[in-house]
Amino acid sequence: MARMRSSMASRAGTSADPAMAVAVAIFAHQEERRIAGCLGSLPLDRPDTIFHVLVNGTTDRTVARARAAAADRAHVIVHDIAAGGKSRTWNHFVHHLLTGTEDAVIFLDGDAQIAPGSIDALVADLATHPQANAAAGMPVNGREVETYRRNLRIERGIFGDLYALSGRFVAAIRASGLRLPDDLVGDDGLVASWAHTDLASDADWQLERVLACEGAGFACEPVGLTRPLTWRMHYKRLINYSVRYYQNRIVSDIMSRVGPAGLPRELVSLYPDWLPRWRPRPGPIGWFDHKGLARMKARVAATKKA
To answer: 17, 20, 84, 153: most buried, per Cβ within 10 A?
Structure first.
């Protein structure tokens, strides 16, 4: 990827199993308010673990705040990556920043705070269940928290806020050269599908390949009625969810027919075939669908001009 700068530093400490090699990816885009809290919730003194703070496409002070929070910790690397996009950054991390020798790889968002013991719990669950490709952290706050936790136990999905992949599974992704579409909104749904199918098509889906890790948890900042900033953030998030809804229809079609090998470099290349079939859903969500579809059409137009 284009421009990248890194800073490093450490403090001594111990971990549950010093024989394990663990990498942690912390995705941060415009997170100057929350990145210090996220890093402060992590066990940055684990000598067996490298923490990669992946600041991508950011114009605020996220990099400076992350470097200040990681000062004097040699196991923390702050990457300043010019190009934004979580899926693009996920690809860069997996294929270019990992060594390929990790026993487990943890993924989390820079706006989340991680419950104590979560990394140990994720690593231990994967070690105890060698047939599993992934382990999902559980939400610990929010109005629908119990519903989300119950669904994770039943459906074995994952939230991008916190999950882990086994080193064996990451090595298989690297060896096959598989990448998320660079413009995919959200990594978690497709990564969960890869984990359930063991990088095959949906016909090979096995629920037990993804674990619901009861000992790992994350908390997200709730929408505050008195804070306009969080309302604006939530409004943009709902538009992103609509784009994701339509993207998932494309991805599900590909995964059901040919599997991950059929995924394009960018989903925008398939938008012209799909956009004529779609209309906003009924109800209030339709407003955000309208905005999301307009954004997707604009991307097609911009691609044609490029």
So the answer is: 20
